[in-house]
Amino acid sequence: MKQIITATFIAALAVFPLAAQEAEDPSVSEGFSLMEEGAKLLLRGLMNEMEPALDDMSEAMTQLGAEMGPAFTMLLSQIDDLRNYDAPEVLPNGDIIMRRRDDAPTYEPDPETGEVDL
Predict the structure, then answer these.
(1) CA 112, 114, 117 angle in degrees (round to 5)?
(2) Nearest to 101 by CA among 89, 84, 87, 116
(3) Is the CB of residue 63 less than 8 Å from the CB of residue 79?
(4) Half-sphere exposure of 107 toward its Cβ, with a 13 Å CA cutoff?
(5) For the CA atoms of 68, 75, 70, 60, what is the dihedral angle to 10 degrees?
(6) What is the pLDDT of residues 13-49, one digit of tens each?
(7) SS3 (DSSP) at 93
């Protein structure tokens, strides 16, 4: 009987620290909130430093769109349907080519104007 009581007492003592470890320590949660605040401050500082560069990049992208818009429209007018072409291929010299598929429909130019009606 003495052994059963001793074993029960030892088991109860062994379980007690487990319950204490599960309880949340306020200093631990405070440490996490401090780390979270530090990360927020770091990211805010990075954003403040990057803001002028991002504004310049926005202006450059707007200017690029204005300059490249007509050229891109002309390129798209020359390509009738992207499904009629194979995937782009990069040659050893750096050129990029898009081969027209063999089964793609052909368009005959108008004999009077020489334009192709897509």
Answers:
(1) 100
(2) 84
(3) no
(4) 13
(5) -10
(6) 565 555 445 555 566 666 678 888 888 999 898 888 8
(7) coil
